[in-house]
Amino acid sequence: MTIDRSTKLGRRRTATRPRTIVLLAVAITTATACGTPVGITRVDPDTAHRMLTASVLSTDELSTPTRNVLYRRGIYEAYTHEPGPTIASLHRALATGSAGRDDICALAELSFQHAQRTRDRSYYLAAAIYAYAFLFPGPNHTTPDVLDPRLRLAADLYNRGLAEGFIGADSFEVRPREGIYPLPFGTLTVRFDAEQLRWGRRRLDHFVPVADLAVTGMKTRYRWPGVGAPLVAGTEPLAGEEVSDFVEPWAKVPVTLLLTIPDPRRQLESTQVEGTLQLDAALEPKTVTIDGREVPLEIESTASLAYTLAEAPVWQQEIRGFLQKVGVTDSKAYLAALQPYTAGRVPVVLVHGTASSAGRWAEMLNELENDPRIHSRYQFWLFTYDTGNPIAYSSMLFRQALTDALQRLDPDGRDPELRRMVLIGHSQGGLLAKMAVIDSGEVLWDTVSKQPLTKLTLTRPSSELLHRMMFVQPLPFVRRVIFLATPQHGSYLAGGWLANQVARFVTLPTSLVHLSADLLTANKDALVLASSGQLPTSIDSMNPTRPFIRALASIPVSPGVATHSIIAVEKEGPPDRENDGVVAYTSAHVDGVESEYVVHSGHSCQGNPSTIEEVRRILLVHAVAN
Questions:
Q1: Rounded CA gap, 47 and 60, in Å?
Q2: 3-state SS class at 584
Q3: Domains of the chain with CATH codes
Q4: Per-residue pLDDT band at 2 (split at 50, 70, 90)
Q5: What is the largest CA-CA distance in the chain?
Q6: What secondary structure does DSSP assign to 523-580, as a single string?
Q7: How many Å apart are CA 50 and CA 68, to the nearest integer?
Q8: What is the per-residue pLDDT across 175-231, written as a single tens digit (0 to 9) for each?
């Protein structure tokens, strides 16, 4: 039989074709590791959330909505290789009416990212303008839904873009001023009234963006969210103006910079954009009206406070103010305010303790100033003094500073709230506060001399100084005192060997050196002084075995003054057996106070949350008290 070989071969090829296809498919599948074009990978919820909320402000990666716009318009790869021209093409689409709200928000983020990478400040301003147009598009345009996550992103892009756009070329400071500024697609004409730089009798200057500041040393950071670039500004007195509100030169002011752009969607259709720059010293939450809506301004109060205290000379005061130099001019005790006097608000005066400074009140100030209930009713003042000086001398300076402040701020007595003052004293500062609200009679003088003051042989300046120090009358404008860890009956550490050695290095200011010499020259036999034969330092005065602290403890607070004790103890257990490492409970405890609160803390309890909450409670009580 004859066999057709060609037919057999044809059948054989036909039979092997399916097998070849299968083998090829297996090879391809193996090479791609069984992958598919679309898939999912399980991640933890935190990672998923970060992926959904990431933006150029947090990761330098574009947000999901902006990437969506790039993909949808087919320009993702173009932006990757040529970001500037791609942004320009998207802007042209907006100018010709073929782009919408999604594109505007994307333009804000794309411009900000390009500015970050190129440091071209015109793109920062463009980012701010696009973001403003997304938030406040103007007439006949729909505003974003309140739950749109891009709302906060746009506000932050606006705030950051505004601050970066107005930073000077040769510094890191923002320079608010009118002028014509370049944009990637044209120009921005800015109107600005320089009178806005006026702050009371001072001029605002040296504006620093809060975004550039990392706050350290504070456990909480408060931000009042809104629109506007939050800044921190310095101040300087206006030429020819006499400033008498005792705001220190190192005080910083929270300021908000705002650029308003009428009908921004319409203006973006041209190459010329116009806007008005506003500057607001935002000492408390405020709103502005934009497109008929009340919009809050953004404020970073904690950063401003931290910047103030970081720049202040208070930290050097802690040791230098304890160990003074003999023969130098007297170091000034002074009252400092962080803001100008505001009529109708009760002053709360904070007095620090030994070898400490006003900076130690930072945590408490940060918490209380950011409580609207407190901020709207009170203004905070800080008293700084040389803590090695005799307590009687420091308290004299304190009383005089308060009296002078009222005379300067309200000489006609028109502000009754100034005369409802609250004093808060920590440690030795509590003793100064007590001496502002007592009638000492002869009690304190008897710890100095066996003879009446008029019987001593003294120069007139020495006699007058002694009288002001030792014969104390209550200040009529102080209505409440809060004692924090105050050694009412002395500190056991002040009577120890180490404290006595330290006290040997404490030297007195010139006026007290002269007074000491005057007393000892002709009155030695009449004096009741320490064995060293010189005026006592603050350490001597707080020694529980010394006459001064015993005498002060025996004098009651003037009727009509409410008092409170906050006492720190380090350990659990019966408080009367404990101490805070410096002051024992039994020393800090006094009868007759309206409230006593025990907090578990070391001696420096000003920043303890429980301490702050108790102070807050007391101030809220005082706010409504008669």
A1: 16
A2: strand
A3: 49-304 (no CATH), 313-624 (3.40.50.1820)
A4: very low
A5: 158
A6: -GGGB---TTSS---HHHHT-TTSHHHHHHHHSPBPTT-EEEEEEEESSSS-GGG-B-
A7: 17
A8: 999 999 999 999 999 999 999 998 877 889 999 998 777 888 888 988 889 999 999
